[in-house]
Amino acid sequence: KSPGNTVIDECWRSVGSTFREIFASPCVRFWRILRAFVDYSCLHSLKPNVQSAGAPIMAMNSSQVKAQHLQQQNNMAGPGGTGWPRRNSQNSTPTTTVAEPQFPTTTGAINRIIKLYPLTNYIFGTKEPLFERDPSVPARFQRMRDEFEKIGMRRSVEGVLLVHEHGLPHVLLLQLGTTFFKLPGGELNPGEDEVEGLKRLLTETLGRLDGVKQEWHVEDIIGNWWRPNFEPPQYPYIPSHITKPKEHKRLFLVQLQDTALFGVPKNYKIVAAPLFELYDNSQGYGPIISSLPQALCRFEFIYM
Question: Which positions fall inside the Nudix hydrolase domain (predicted)?
Answer without folding.
Answer: 153-278
